[in-house]
Design brief:
single chain, DDE_SF_endonuclease_dom, two-stranded antiparallel sheet, globular, CenT-Element_Derived, DDE-1 domain-containing protein, six-stranded mixed sheet, DNA binding
Length: 396
C-alpha cells in the first residue's frame, strides 16, 4: 500500500530538484541505515543431509543472543564508511572492539538501539569522513525513523556543515533504499558463514559481544564491494537519476488500496464518514418470504443442486421507518479523539528534505505544542506493620 506511484513520484521530484540545485556527483550521494546483528544469526545456511532423515542438526552459538545495532553508510561511487556499533551496555568496554574493522567506532547504550544523541555523534563522524562543507555539500538519504527526522540539533548540525538530508517515503525502503536493495542480504549471508566458521574453530565456545565485532568485520569486508554499492544506487534509480525505473507492474500491488483522500498541510488523512448508530426502539419491516407474479428474484447461485424452485426467496429489506430521532449523534469525545489523532499525524512520515527551512520550522512548532508534562505519581497503600523500625509513615 505504501509503495504506490504517487508517493514514488513525489520522492523523485524532490530528488531531481536537489540534483539540479547542487549538482551532486556519485561520490557525494550517500545512503545510511541501521541493521541489527546478533550473536546468534537470524538465518542459517542450507545443510546437506541424507534423504529421509527427520532431524538435521547444525552447530549454533546459543538459543538466544544479544542484538547490537550497526550503522552502515555507503555512496554511489562504491565507498563505504567504517561501521558504527551500538552495544547494549551502559559503560564503555574496549574489549568489545577487539579486531574490529579499521576506523570503526562504538557507542554504548542500555537498549542497544539508535538514539537521537547517538545519531548526532554519528553525524559528526560522517561529516569528517565525507569532508562535507557548505561550499562542497553532500546528499544523505535516510529513512523516516524518529532519530533521523525529529531532532532539531541534528538538522542544525547538517545545515551548518553542508549535509542535505532527504527522507525516503514510509514503507518504500525495500525498493528505494540502496542498502536494503543490494547490501543487507549479502551481509547477513556472509555473517552467518563467518559465525559458523568461528564456532567450528573454537569448539565448545559461544559467540559473545566480545567476538561479535571481529566476526562482523570479516563479513563486512566480503559484502562491502564497489559493485554492490553501484548496483544498489542504479537499481533504485537514484544514481544515475532515473525516475522511470519502476513501471506499472511494480505498483500493481498498491492498486487495490488506492482510495480518495483529502490532503492535509503536512499529511494525508483519510476521510471516512462515521457510521450512524440506530436505536433499538426503531421499527424495521419484516422480510417477506413470498413473491408476487410480477416480481422475479434471480437465482443467486445458478447451477447449484441445492437450489430449486421450492427454495424460499427473500426480498431485500429496506430501512423505511427510521426517523432522524432514531439516529444517535457521534459522541463529542469521539470527535475530539479524531481531531487529536489528525493533529498528531502531521509528522507521521512523509518524504521531505529535512534540512529545508519549512520542515525545520514545522518541527519546532510541533515540538513546542506537544510538550509532555510529567504524569502524576501513583500512590499506593502502605501499612506501618511492614516497617516496624520506621515511624511517622503515611497510610497512603
Amino acid at each position: 500500500m505504501g509503495f504506490n506511484k504517487r508517493v514514488v513520484d513525489d520522492f523523485f521530484q524532490l530528488l531531481g530538484g536537489l540534483m539540479d540545485q547542487y549538482k551532486f556527483k556519485p561520490d557525494r550521494i550517500y545512503n545510511c541505515d541501521e541493521t541489527g546483528i546478533s550473536s546468534v544469526p537470524k538465518s542459517k545456511s542450507k545443510i546437506i543431509a541424507s534423504k529421509g532423515r527427520k532431524q538435521v542438526g547444525a552447530i549454533t552459538s546459543a538459543e538466544r543472543g544479544e542484538t547490537v545495532t550497526v550503522e552502515i553508510c555507503m555512496n554511489a561511487a562504491g565507498t563505504y564508511m567504517p561501521p558504527f556499533f551500538i552495544f547494549p551496555r551502559k559503560r564503555f568496554n574496549s574489549e568489545f572492539m577487539r579486531n574490529a574493522p579499521i576506523g570503526s567506532i562504538a557507542e554504548f547504550h542500555q537498549s542497544g538501539w539508535m538514539q537521537k544523541d547517538i545519531f548526532e555523534k554519528w553525524m559528526v563522524h560522517f561529516i569528517q569522513f565525507s569532508h562535507a562543507t557548505q561550499d562542497n555539500p553532500v546528499l544523505l538519504l535516510l529513512d523516516g525513523h524518529c532519530t533521523h527526522t525529529k531532532s532539531i540539533e541534528l538538522i542544525q548540525i547538517a545545515r551548518d556543515n553542508g549535509v542535505v538530508l532527504l527522507c525516503f517515503p514510509p514503507h518504500c525502503t525495500h525498493r528505494l533504499q540502496p542498502l536494503d536493495v543490494a547490501f543487507m542480504k549479502p551481509l547477513s549471508t556472509y555473517y552467518d558463514k563467518e559465525t559458523t566458521n568461528w564456532l567450528r574453530n573454537h569448539g565448545g565456545d559461544v559467540v559473545t559481544l566480545k567476538q561479535l565485532a571481529e566476526i562482523f568485520g570479516l563479513a563486512f569486508i566480503k559484502a562491502a564491494t564497489m559493485t554492490t554499492a553501484i548496483n544498489g544506487f542504479q537499481k533504485t534509480g537514484i544514481c544515475p537519476f532515473n525516475p522511470d525505473i519502476f513501471n506499472d507492474l511494480d505498483f500493481m500491488a498498491a492498486e487495490t488500496t488506492n482510495v480518495l483522500i483529502e490532503n492535509d498541510d503536512m499529511a494525508q488523512v483519510s476521510s471516512v464518514p462515521p457510521l450512524p448508530v440506530i436505536r433499538e426502539s426503531c421499527t424495521l419491516p419484516e422480510a417477506s418470504n413470498s413473491t408476487t407474479d410480477n416480481e422475479k428474484v434471480p437465482d443467486p447461485m445458478p447451477g447449484c443442486s441445492h437450489w430449486n424452485d421450492q427454495t424460499p426467496k427473500v426480498k431485500k429489506t429496506t430501512f423505511k421507518n427510521v426517523s432522524p430521532e432514531d439516529v444517535l449523534p457521534v459522541p463529542q469525545q469521539t470527535l475530539e479523539n479524531r481531531e487529536k489523532k489528525k493533529r498528531n499525524s502531521r509528522f507521521r512520515g512523509k518524504t521531505a528534505v529535512i534540512t529545508e527551512s519549512p520542515y525545520k520550522k514545522a518541527l519546532e512548532e510541533h515540538q513546542k505544542n506537544s510538550k509532555k508534562f510529567p504524569a502524576k505519581r501513583k500512590v499506593t497503600n502502605v501499612k506501618k506493620s511492614y516497617f516496624p523500625n520506621l515511624t511517622n509513615l503515611p497510610t497512603k
